Amino acid sequence: PADIPALCSPAGDYVVLCCDKSILSYSLLLGVMFTGATAVLCPHGKADIIHEMTKGHRVKAAFFHKKYSELVKASLKRMDTPPSLVAVIDSEDPQMNAIITSEEECVTYKVHHPEEHISIILFSSGTTGEPKGIQMSDTAITLMGVLFAPHVKTLFNASPFYWYTGVMTFISPILNSYTVVMSNATETIENVKLVQKYQADGWFLSIGAMIQCTHLENIESYDCSSIKEVYAGGEVMLKSVMEAFLAKVVGGPAMVQVMYGITEGGIMATTNSDDEALLETSLQPGLFLHLSPGVEMKILDDDRKPVAPGSLGEVWFKCPGMTPGYWSLPELNRQVFDKDGFFCSGDAGFCNHRGYLFHRGRVSDLITYKGVKVAPAEVEEVLMSHPSVLDAVVIGKAHSTDTQHVTAFVVRRPGSRATGEEIAAFVDNQVDDVRKLRGGVHFVESLPRIAVGKVIRKVLRT
Question: Where is the AMP-binding enzyme C-terminal domain positioned along the sequence (predicted)?
Answer without folding.
Answer: 378-454
